[in-house]
Amino acid sequence: MKPEIGISEKNRDKSIKVLSVLLADEMVLYVKTRKFHWNVSGNSFMEFHKLFQSQYTELEEVVDAVAERISKLGGNAIGTLSEFKELTQLKESPAEYPEQKEMLKELLSDHETIVIQLRTEIEEFSTKSKDSGSTDFLTKLMEQHETTAWVIRRYLK
Ligand SMILES: [Fe+2]
Q: Please, what are the averages of pLDDT over each run of 10 residues along the chain (157 residues)?
């Protein structure tokens, strides 16, 4: 059954498209953060091992929330690795195992990319699509990524 929630079908489809790309980005960042949790070494190993674990645990919940937002708007949440890979805007580095500092820099860059992307989309969602639910959801999510980016940045100073 189609949701009758006061957003036109065209705008719901637009929201679903944007949220699907976001879902792919969050999934790729989740997997990358797990990879770094598994492979980090050197000084402060346990600090970063635990930090990355707390970050991927948060991202796991984010992935779920984005997928369910798509579903609430009447869309199908993509759930295959090939679709995630096709849609994501983030870059993966197969067979590369960077040093601690490089791991932090890469994660920071991905979180900042998502923040910048979300900031643009929030504007669209609120002014053009009238999708206030997604606007609120994405604003909170943007702030969550800003917090993670801030934490990572503190390690790099
Ligand atoms: Fe673990």
A: 93 96 98 98 96 98 98 98 98 96 98 97 90 96 98 95
